[in-house]
Specification:
This protein has about 120 residues and is of the alpha+beta class. It has helices spanning about 35, 65-70, 100-105, and strands spanning about 25-30, 50-55, 75-80, 115-120. The chain has one domain (about 10-120). The protein contains three helices and four strands. The two termini are about 20 Å apart.
């Protein structure tokens, strides 16, 4: 499995060309820089990739709608809003106070950071 995963440094638009050579999942959590990086006009190869991206609407109101619109012709787009789901906590946390359990799940964000799950409609391989 490790041979199929590549972790690198700074990613440029042209680096997305690898999406044309192999099935690709782009997992993107880059604290607001997704606005500049995830652009199918600058990186047409993104049209072949599935993309899961945390969108920082807290820094740029409406950014998730903007990015979803960029990919609406090439991808099925689902927005996943934040949710505090206590059922995800391990059993031992039942002994903690409600505040401690809430703090274990809270990301300390200043505002919304929804995720977009964008599945490519047509893979080019």
């Amino acid at each position: 499995m490790a041979a199929r995963i590549s972790i690198g440094g700074t990613f440029e638009h042209s680096d997305f060309d690898l999406c044309l050579r192999q099935p690709t999942l782009v997992l993107c959590d880059i604290e607001g820089a997704e606005e500049a990086l995830l652009d199918p006009l600058k990186s047409p190869s993104l049209k072949a990739a599935d993309i899961l991206v945390e969108v920082h609407d807290c820094f740029n109101d409406g950014l998730s709608e903007e990015i979803a619109a960029r990919f609406k012709t090439s991808h099925s787009v689902a927005k996943i809003n934040r949710d505090v789901d206590m059922s995800a906590l391990p059993d031992w946390m039942e002994t903690l106070s409600d505040m401690d359990r809430l703090m274990a799940l809270w990301e300390w964000r200043i505002g919304p950071t929804p995720w977009l799950w964008m599945q490519a409609r047509d893979r080019i391989l």
